Every structure is written in C-alpha cells, then in structure tokens.
Amino acid sequence: MLLPSYKNRPESKPMAWLMPKNYQHVLAFLFAIQEINQNNSLLPNTTLRSDIHDNAFHSMLTYWATLDLLFLEHRAPFNYNCGREKKLMATIGGLTSQSSIQMANILNTYKIPQLTYGSFDPVLSDKAQFPSFFRMAPNENPQYDGIVQLLKYFSWNWIGLLISDNDSGETFIRTLRPKFSQNSICIALIQSIPVVTSHTLESREKYYGKIFLTLQLNKINVIIVYGDAHSMAGFQIVLDYSEFVDLSPKEKVWLITSQWDFTAIFTWNKFPAKSLNGTLSFALHKNVVPGFQDFLESINPYQSSFYFIEPFWCSTFSCSLPMDGANMTYQQHCTGEEKLGSLPGAVFEMEMSGQSYSIYNAVHVIAHALHAIYLLKSKHKAIGDVVNVQPWQLRPFLRNVHFNNSAGEEIFFDENGDFAAGYDIINWVMFPNKSFHRLQVGKMEPQDPSGKRFTVNGRNIVWNHKFSQIPPRATCVESCQPGYSRIVQQGKQVCCYDCAQCPEGRISSQIDAGQCEKCPEDQYANEKKDQCISKTVTYLSYGEPLGAVLASFALFFSIITVLVMGSFMQHHNTPIVKANNWGITCILLSSLLLSFLCCFLFIGQPQKVTCFLRQTVFGIIFSIAVSCVLGKTITVVLAFMATKPGNKIRKWIGKRLAVSVIILCSLIQTGICVVWLATFPPFPEFDMHSQTGQIIVQCNEGSDMMFYIVLGYMGLLAITSFTVAYFARKLPDTFNEAKLITFSMLVFCSVWVSFVPSYLSTKGKHMVAVEIFSILVSSSGVLGCIFLPKCYVILMRPDLNTKEQLVRKK
Fold first, then answer.
1. Structural element, H or E, at residue 752
2. Residues in CB range of 530: below 8 A, 6 or more apart
3. Among candidate residues 95, 25, 125, 153, the one with its CA nearest the CA of residue 443
C-alpha cells in the first residue's frame, strides 16, 4: 500500500489540487514492482501486486483508506477474511508522521508490517508501541546534529524557528533547544505555522498576516523551517504574498528540514523562486537508480493504466484526455507523445527524489524479506509455499534484511528498525524563470567509516542576492574580534554580549572567544592581544653595548693596575715604596686586579659554575682588598703612635700585625661564603615574568640573606678602615697615607651604600650591570685614591721621593 501526497480534486475543479511532483512517488513504487517481477532470481514464480490509496492529508481519509485496503475493498465486514484472492503482506506509507501513526494504530492490531518513507517522529522508533513499524527514512537525531554543526560552521547563533503547529513541531523544539544551549546558539524567534484550511484571500489575511508582519519586523537572517508539505503550505502562502507585494521577509537564509520538499507545490500555486534562492535544506539521501529515467520516458497515458495517470497527465501538460469524460478542462488534446523529461523541474523532475528513493528501497526490502522466506521454505522442501506465509511472520525477515540495491548501496535496518542512512545538505539556486538547480554542498552521515559525520563545502554555496557579506551574518551583536572576549549582557541571552579586551598576558585568537587564554611561560601577548609571541632570551652579554662597555672598563682598569704594580716593582728601592709596606701593597694591588677581573664572571650567559663562584669570589677578593686597606691604616696609626717616647706600641709595628689583620678578616669572609655555598648555593634560573617579552637568564643567589651578610661584612671592614683613617688624617707628615685611605674608603662606602637601593630597584641584566659598575667604581676609587698620588711622585716628581721629604714635618 502506498499513500502518495497529493490532493483529491474537487468536482468543480478537477485539476486544481494535484501535486505533480509527488506523483513521482507512485511511479517509483510501480517501477520497483516492475523491476522485481522481471527479476527471475528474486521471488521466482511469484508476482507482486499492489494497491494504491490516497489520504489527501486528512485524518478521516487515512483511517478510511487503511480500512478500505484491509476489508471494504474486498466487500468484507471489518475483522473478517472472506476468502479474498489477494493477500496483504505489507504496507508502505505515509508521507507525514501523523498519517503514519494513524495507519499504524490500525495495522498493528493485525500485525501487518508497515514501512514508511517520509515519517520522522521519534515516537515511531518505540518498538513496544509500534512493533511492526519500519522506517525507510533515517532517524531524525543526525539531522538535529547536522543543524547544530551547520550553524556552528557559519558562526550563526541568532536564529529564528518556523515550526508546524502540531506535536511534531513541539518535539522538534523540545529536542533542539538543549542542543542549542550546549553550543551557545540562541533562538530569537519561534513562530508556529497553522495548517491550511482555506485558500481564500480572507483566510490568508486572517491566519498568515501576523506571520508576515513578524518576519518583516524581525531582523533575523537565518530561519529554520520545520514541517511537512501539509503543515508548511501556509508558510508557502506567506512567501507568495511577500513576493507579490515585493516586501522583505523573503530575503532570509531559509534552513529547511528534510520533512518538506518545498518544490512540490499544487498546480495553482506560484513557485516563490526569489524568496527561496540560496536556501539550504536537509534532504533524504538518494542515489541514481539505473533504468528509472528510461521508465519515465516510456510512460504513455493511452498505454499505461497507472493509478491516477489521467489527471496527472492532464495537469502537468495542460491537455485533455478522452478517458477523462466530462472533465475536459483543457481545449488542447493530449497526443500521448508528450515526454516527462520536457517538463520544467518546478513541475516534475526526472531525477529520483529522496522520498521516491525511500519508496523504491522499501519495495525491495519487502521483496528481499519474502525471498528470504522463500529460500527458507525451499531448504525445508516446501517450495512454493510462500503464499501461505502470514504478514506477522514477515517481521523478523524485514528486521534482518541486508542487500545491495541496484544503485550499489547497502540497505539494512539498525537495531531500532530505522533505515541506516544519512542526509544530504542541498543548496537551492533559483532562476527567474521558476527553474532551479539542486546543488549538494555537504552531508550528515552517521555511518561514515572515516568518522567524518558532518561535511560541508561553504565555498560552493550560492546565497540569496540580498546578502553583500558572504557568508551572511546571523548574530545578536557584532562579533568580538581577536584580542577580545565575550561578556554576557545582564538579563539577555548569551548570544547578546559585550566585548572586553584581554588582560595583560592573555590572548584570544578566535572571533567571539568565550574567554582569553593565558600565554605559555615562554611566550607573551602582543599589543593587540590576539597572538602569543616567543620571548627573547636575554642576559648581559659581550655582544651588546652595555656589556661591551663594562668589559672594556674592567679590562682597562686591570691594565692600569698591572702598570701600577710594574711601577712599584721597578722603584721598589725608593723611600716612598718602602714606606708603604711593600708586601701589603702587593697583596692590595693583586686583590684589586682580581676584583677588576672578577667582573668577567658577571658578563655572559650565566652557567652553573659562574653562578656558583661569582658572588663568593667577589666577596672574598673585596674582603682581602679592604682588609689590606685596614691593615695599612692600623700600621700608619701605630707608626705615629710609636714615635712618642715610652710608648709600648712599638713592639706591635711590623709586617706581622698587618698580615694577621688581613688573614683574620679574610678568613671570616671566607667562612661566611663556605656556609653560603654549603647551605644555599647560587644557581642559574630563567625569570619568565619580570620583563614582558623577555626570558631573563640570571643567577638566583640561593639565599638573599647570605648575600647581604657578605656585603654587610665588607661594609663593616670599610667603615672601620674609614673611621680609623679619618682620625689619623691630621698626623704631622709630608705624605700622610691616612688621608688617602680616608678618601678611598669614603668612595668605597658611598658606592656600596648607593648600590643596595639601585640593585633592588632594577631587574634582569641591569641588576648585573649595577653590581659590575659598583665593583669597578669602588675598586678604581681605592686604586686611584691610594696609588695614583704615589705614582705621580714616583714618575713625575722624583725629587720628592726622598727620605728627608717623607719624614719632614710641616
């Protein structure tokens, strides 16, 4: 049984209610029957027969047609089988979910299998309620997922819904709403379409004027349309009217579900080509069936006795047939030479539609199930006994059917009794002459072996002429550009949001980013906050100007120190050199030379060894230098005190005292450094956060307290030397070294007192530069203040380098 979707014609207008395109359902059904009966390997010695009934989109007619098929056609009362010759084994239909459910309510009582080709209602998958129901249309869930994926592909999140005003429409919203919520897609408009009850101008204004105004006032570019051919007839009226008055509701991106083939229209309707240009629709998957177009071309109304062939032929070719009798509507007579292939696509298509393809497969499913029974009977020596099979016995064979159809596709049912197939995504290109081109731009294939369930090629889509931006936008607000993130507006849907720039260290590289992402530690955000840039590794190197200048000064002062040592060695027998304690002088100059050279431990990329040594080497060397200065100061003071008669200090004067001071003071600093290295040794580290855009390679001191203890101890020695020298500065002598030591320690203390705040206020390589600068200035200050005046006397004024001049009192 097949229930094709077209209206019975009224008596006054015999051709007015026909849908010519849907007559292809009948022809696909008859073609499949003919193909099976001509196949000797499928159901041999058995001929399939068929009955076709129409329900005219009417509940009462659906019940009546079902009962007529079961009983009344055979002149039998209800629930009686009066020995009819034809046995009903299975039914195919109907087009809408409502008619399928109405049929199933009757057929389930008699356990007659029902295969439907256009019903999507999820309730029909309930095998407890509909055990004999098999869907040739795929499950609707992949279509829901496909809609969500398509909206996400084009970044559409502000959409409208036009749904049929029935249970199926409510189920559609109830199922789709949580999926939208999970993917941040907002429903801006929900409009129900009432079922067409009248086609007068008054009814149009009463039922569809409100819908027209709603579509006109709402600035929504993308609208999803859900419904079947019956429930969406009202929506088509709205589009017709909008094109007639040339207003704007038509210029949308219509996203139409597979329940409605909107190209199937009544013969009196206009085809709203301008409105539907660029439409995207989900369609039942189909394939090219060999021989079908030849079958269509061979149809002749004078030779074929197909169901309803006369009104179909007259309606599509606008001619009259003699067998129509009194209903000679058209003056031109049909010759029988007319060809279906000459008709425009808006009237009739030669290519098999998705619904016709489902009907074709449904007939073959029944045939293969009957053939399976035939083989089982043959195996048990009961050849030809297939006619005694009861309809309920066919159900398990239908459930397990699995074959390749003539198009080469696998046909089988899944565990829910649903046809295992997917959906094609179609782009409709309309032309002014009412013709159209169907362009497949994607698919939703749940059984795809590669795992790509959803595919779409957006570059091939032809959009409506209205849209200057390709693809069209469908958002509540302007999108947040990269570098910004969304902030939901209070009291509004999540799709209506403000844009806030990403905070420091975070970026967003996508449009409409939900939140800003933090850059990895080795990268930083650029100025636009839309990408992370790799940080540069930085340290005080010889290759940069600052490092080169400091290294040059360290080398320069080292050379000066060596020259001073050379001068003193060359003139070691002169009074001024002898008076300065040659041994302590050598130790002091050597420690100053090492102080200048230890600057090179601070320049270059920090390594484990350099970090381990540089602070401790610097601390010990400087302590030796300051200890030498302290020893010289004490020696000078004691020397003048020993000149007084009867002073007992004379026995302390000599090298032994100065060396003892140097060794003792140096050992204390060495002990501090040993404790430091043994407990919290310095180590190299990467500072990712102090400087934007830079990774600072530096030495972690391990323990800041130990570092400041080393500095503090050097400061204590320097202050002690300064104090002693200060009080001895006025001793009567021509060349009073205490004055020179006072100035040198004043410079030394000033440098290192200012070093601490400068060191703490800088970061990265500048911290190292500050310390090197302090080392150079303090060391050069000691060298200059103590030794340059003596070098001047030695080299420039040798007349003053005499014993008489040194002991002469002022």
1. helix 737-760
2. 481, 482, 483, 507, 508, 509
3. 153
Find out whether 386 and 370 touch, Cβ atoms under 8 Å: yes
Measure the CA–CA gap between 520 and 527, rounded to whole angstroms: 16
CA distance 243 to 238: 9
Contacting residues for 31 by C-beta, under 8 A, at least 6 apart: 289, 291, 292, 295, 360
Of 565, 611, 630, the closest CA to residue 592 belongs to 565
Cα distance between residue 524 and residue 506, in whole Å = 8
Structural contact between residues 359 and 28, judged by C-beta atoms closer than 8 angstroms = yes
Which tokens belong to 646? 């009867």
Q: Are residues 128 and 171 in the same domain?
A: no
Closest to 102 measured CA to CA, from 127, 145, 135, 65: 65
Q: How many domains does the chain have?
A: 4
* Residue 510, both tokens: 């996508």
Residue 375, pLDDT score: 86
Separation between Cα atoms, residue 228 and residue 234, nearest integer Å: 11
In order, the DSSP letters of 421-461 are --EEEEEEEE-TTS-EEEEEEEEE-TT-TTS--EEE-GGGP
pLDDT (tens digit, 9 = 90+) per residue, 260-311? Answer: 887 777 655 666 777 788 899 999 888 899 999 999 999 988 888 888 888 8
Is the link from the previous residue into 345 a cis peptide, with omega within 30 of 0? no
Residue 605 — φ and ψ, nearest 5°? -65, 125
In a domain, 466, yes or no: no
> Encoding tokens for residue 764?
């990265």
* Regions in the chain scoring below 70 on pLDDT: 1-18, 57-58, 72-86, 196-210, 217, 237, 240-250, 266-271, 323-329, 381-387, 416-417, 578-580, 636-655, 728-738, 799-810
Q: Does residue 128 sit in the same domain as residue 153?
A: no
**CA nearest 752: which of 786, 792, 699, 711?**
711
Burial class (CB in 10 A: 0-12, 13-18, 19+), 335: exposed
**Within its chain, how far is the Cα of 391 from the centroid?**
53
Q: Is the dihedral of CA 295, 95, 421, 371 positive or negative?
A: negative
Give a yes or no: residue 476 inside a domain.
no
Place of tokens 């290519």: 351
Strand partners, 436: 430
CB 132 within 8 A of CB 114: yes
Q: Are the C-beta atoms of residues 481 and 499 closer than 8 Å to each other?
A: yes
Question: What CA–CA distance (Å, rounded) separates 551 from 534?
Answer: 29
768 domain residue, yes or no:
yes
- 152: its two tokens: 């996400």
Query: How far is Cα 365 from Cα 114, in angstroms, rounded to an integer?
Result: 11
C-alpha 376/C-alpha 374 separation (Å) is 5
What is the predicted pLDDT for the residue at 742?
A: 78
Helix (H, G, I), strand (E, B) or coil at 584: helix
**799 and 670 share one domain:** yes
Terminal Cα-to-Cα distance of the chain (whole angstroms)? 139
CA dist 112 and 3 (Å) reads 16
| Residues 6+ positions from 67 with CB-CB distance below 8 Å | 78, 106
Per-residue DSSP letters for 133-152?
EEESSPPSHHHHHHHHHHHH
* Statement to judge: residues 581 and 714 lie in one domain: yes
CA distance 672 to 135: 89
Q: Tokens 């009814």: give the residue.
A: 203
DSSP single-letter state for residue 124: G
What does the block give as tokens for 235?
């929506």
Distance in angstroms (rounded) separating the CA atoms of residues 660 and 697: 41
Does 268 share its domain with 383?
no
Q: How far apart are CA 790 and CA 801, in angstroms?
A: 9
793: CB partners within 8 A, 6+ apart:
576, 735, 800, 801
**CA Rg, the chain, in Å?**
50
Question: 514 to each of 147, 159, 504, how far by Cα in Å?
Answer: 22, 19, 17
State how far the Cα of 558 lies from the Cα of 571, in Å rounded to an integer.
20
Does residue 680 sit within a domain? yes
